[in-house]
Design brief:
The complex is a heterodimer of chains A (79) and B (702). Chain A is an alpha+beta fold and 79 residues long. Chain A has 2 helices and 6 strands. Helices cover 64% and strands 7% of the residues of chain B. Classes of the chains: A alpha+beta (79), B alpha/beta (702).
Chain lengths: 79, 702
């Protein structure tokens, strides 16, 4: 089973291996800098459990779990 | 010379625009403040430059209406020069757009904005090296402090801004092969077509775009470019070729071409970034992260959000009250002065009852408006707007919308017009339409004077802030409920993905907050001096004429006259409809006049009560200076329940004329503005009926 961004707990880091899905969502994620090789830190879940906040180099993004589940990752532990 | 300012959302384009042109366009700290193109002029070094400020965009593939504006100006308008404003603390992502701009082969200057912040978090940039690697001039600026502007202008006017083709991105070999193949077809199409007519049309449509760019866009499956080709004669042949190429690439590289092209651009950026940028890892949590630990906390995040909202409305009411009283004294002494100075006449009645009461009644609430906009300005400038969207997304998702839809709603507390404009940041047309339809339910600043008057007259001081808050809350709840209703029955569909940037917090700049408040105050006063003045005079005339009955006889009492006046007849006509919700004909007239602008309800009531007050004086009794609240209490005959129901009605029913007009403009037709007006009136009546009859039966506030 490939790991997904939604499998991360707050504070954990990972590297993107693949952005699945298609169409507008995928393009938008790519525009925001989420491509294979991008390092991501899971910051937090919103009070009501969704959306999530992630940190990339240089910015904080908010996305829903639905979208996060299209992002495959490999864990790189704490950096 | 025409220059376009382009860049990612919230990178500081408008700040730079204001600095260059001396304009005072609205700025804020959240993505999507600018949703329209704005033009300005700059004279420097003998150059007369037209500057176009654009909405922010992450890429040239547009999703939302505001991004489409940016895309069209850049691609179709082809400015002479693009100043690409880039957030220096987030170079990698910002340069992604730069790479796409470069493919258009338009000269670019890269303005690395917020460089001071980038330096403060340990980012050191070698500007010369970056410029060499990217093949574009690079300049360091700090828009908020005006640093680097002279250097930028020197570059702009240096006259040697040319496109440097050598530094374009090179993609993977397979992609390059496909690009070259398409380019060749396109070029030959431009030169030798089957017929002269076809060639001409191709020439006319496509000559302004570089063929390499067209080839890349086609391979990326860009909708606009593909559509353009589909509409050309022989265009389908090219599209077939593109699809064949995409298929080959897909199988041979195991990824779709748009992904590979994007990765190619990022690879180029990362290469340059590694060489020209040095990051000293400052192993500490940034201030923004510390603040978010509290404000976005899973347990206290939402309570804090509601506390902030509650505080905003307490501020608007409680803090402003003494100032309002002071304004009131001013207006009533003016009124008394004119009253004593002139002999009784129609002119005097027009001045005192029509103009001073009507316009003055609105002007006294200026302090409330100022404090409301102070609060909103701070929310916008600090960066909390996006956090509110983050916190509320789940609820918005439940009603079929988007956390981003919450931003227009927050703006709607100030005024529905910019709020409806702000829906342009929403990508899905249905999401956008639903947000537009429900935004008028969010209580705007124009309704505040009505609340302030009625709360002041009928509710004890200590309850005032909470009564006000309850109205705002009801507005939000109704907006969410109606969104759900519209999403379920009227415009069903999936809600869009939600990907949104959370900007760093910034300390609001005192100057820009003051400017924003001043602009708002000016707008309010201007409104009072124009539309409200006009409507006041009209309402006064409708109350005053005719002065005699059918037979030419004067009425025995003034109250009879008023009932028989044009306004009185109008009010009497609608009275049967509004009687079940506790309103009399006078309230009816005020409500009708409120369609012009919600504040007009106040000025109509002021005119009405002023005229009645004079009439109720016994012979020989001196005119007393009464506060507006006092007059309202004495003359309206309202109970607190009726007053509350009236406020509810004002909250919900028909948005003002200007809002209807903007909905018409943004939806290109009369269908949705008429629908909005219709559903809000019905909804207002139903809610008020329930509250009034319920309150009456239970004996609350009667």
């Amino acid at each position: 089973m490939k790991k997904l961004l939604t499998d991360l707990n707050p504070g954990e880091n990972a590297r993107v291996t693949k952005v699945k899905g298609g169409g507008a969502i995928r393009r938008r994620l790519i525009d925001m800098g989420i491509i294979p090789g991008t390092e991501i830190k899971m910051e937090r879940y919103a009070p009501m459990g969704d959306p999530i906040e992630i940190k990339l180099t240089g910015c904080h993004l908010s996305l829903r779990k639905e979208e996060a589940a299209t992002i495959e990752i490999e864990e790189i532990g704490c950096v | 010379m025409t220059i376009a300012l382009a860049g990612n959302p919230n990178s500081g384009k408008t700040t730079l625009f204001n600095l260059l042109t001396g304009a005072r366009q609205h700025v804020g700290n959240y993505p999507g403040v600018t949703v329209e193109r704005k033009e300005g002029r700059l004279q420097t070094n003998g150059y007369n430059i037209k500057i176009i400020d654009l909405p922010g965009t992450y890429s040239l593939t547009a999703y939302s209406p505001d991004e489409l504006v940016a895309r069209n100006v850049i691609i179709e308008g082809r400015p002479d020069l693009i100043v690409n404003v880039v957030d220096a603390s987030n170079l990698e992502r910002n340069l992604y757009l730069t790479m796409q701009l470069k493919e258009l082969e338009i000269p670019i200057i890269l303005a690395l904005n917020m460089a001071d912040y980038a330096e403060s978090i340990g980012i050191t940039i070698d500007y010369n090296l970056l410029s060499k690697l990217l093949g574009v001039p690079v300049v360091r600026i700090v828009g908020t402090k005006g640093e680097g502007i002279d250097e930028l202008l020197a570059l702009v006017t240096s006259g040697n801004n040319q496109f440097m083709p050598a530094k374009a991105v090179r993609y993977e070999m397979e992609i390059e092969t496909a690009i070259a193949k398409l380019e060749k077809i396109l070029d030959s199409k431009l030169e030798t077509a089957d017929s002269l007519a076809v060639a001409d049309q191709f020439q006319a449509e496509l000559k302004k775009y570089p063929s390499r760019w067209l080839a890349i866009k086609l391979l990326e499956n860009d909708k606009e470019v593909t559509d353009k080709f589909a509409s050309l004669p022989d265009g389908n042949k090219i599209i077939e070729q593109v699809q064949a190429s995409r298929k080959i690439l897909n199988t041979s590289l195991d990824e779709d071409p748009e992904g590979l092209i994007a990765e190619g651009r990022y690879a180029y950026i990362r290469g340059a970034y590694k060489e020209a940028v040095e990051i000293r890892e400052l192993n500490r949590t940034s201030i923004t992260e510390k603040i978010d630990k509290i404000l976005l906390n899973r347990i206290i995040g939402l309570p804090i959000f509601f506390l902030i909202m509650w505080g905003l409305f307490q501020l608007t009411f409680t803090v402003a009250t003494p100032l309002v009283e002071w304004m009131e004294i001013l207006i009533s002494s003016l009124s008394a002065g004119v009253d004593n100075a002139l002999a009784d006449s129609l002119i005097k009645s027009l001045l005192v009852d029509g103009i001073i009461a009507g316009v003055g009644g609105v002007i006294i609430f200026l302090p409330n408006i100022l404090f409301l906009f102070l609060g909103i300005a701070i929310l916008e400038a600090s960066g909390y707007m996006s956090r509110a969207a983050f916190l509320m997304d789940k609820i918005m998702h439940k009603v079929g919308l988007h956390g981003k839809s919450f931003v227009p709603m927050l703006i709607g507390f100030g005024c529905s017009i910019p709020a409806i404009m702000a829906t342009r940041t929403l990508e899905n047309p249905k999401d956008r339409l639903i947000t537009m339809l429900v935004t008028p339910l969010i209580s705007c600043g124009a309704r505040l004077p009505v609340y302030t008057l009625l709360i002041g007259a009928f509710f004890p001081q200590e309850m005032a802030g909470n009564v006000l808050f309850s109205l705002y809350l009801i507005g939000i709840i109704l907006a969410l409920l109606m969104a759900k209703v519209f999403r379920t029955w009227l415009l069903p569909g999936e809600s869009e993905p939600f990907v949104m940037e959370l900007p760093i917090y910034r300390l609001p700049k005192l100057k820009s907050i003051l400017v924003q408040m001043w602009e708002r105050a000016w707008l309010y006063l201007k409104k009072a001096g124009t539309i409200i003045l006009a409507i006041s005079i009209i309402m006064w005339s409708l109350f005053t004429f005719p002065m005699v009955d059918k037979n030419g006889q004067e009425y025995a009492t003034a109250s009879q006259q008023m009932q028989q006046s044009y306004a009185g007849r109008l009010g009497k006509a609608i009275e049967p409809v509004i009687a079940p919700i506790g309103f009399d004909w006078k309230t009816g007239v005020a409500l009708v006049s409120g369609f012009a602008a919600k504040e007009v309800v106040v000025s109509t009531l002021a005119t009405l009560y002023n005229m009645e007050d004079e009439e109720s004086l016994l012979d020989g009794e001196e005119t007393q200076v009464k506060t507006f609240a006092q007059l309202t209490r004495e003359q309206s005959g309202f109970t607190p329940l009726v007053a509350y129901v009236l406020m509810l009605f004002i909250l919900i029913y028909v948005p003002c004329m200007a809002t209807i007009a903007i909905i018409k403009r943004e939806t290109n037709g009369w269908k949705w503005p008429v629908f909005t007006a219709g559903y809000t009136v019905v909804l207002a009546w139903v809610i008020c009926f329930i509250v009034y009859q319920g309150g009456f039966l239970l004996g609350i506030g009667v």
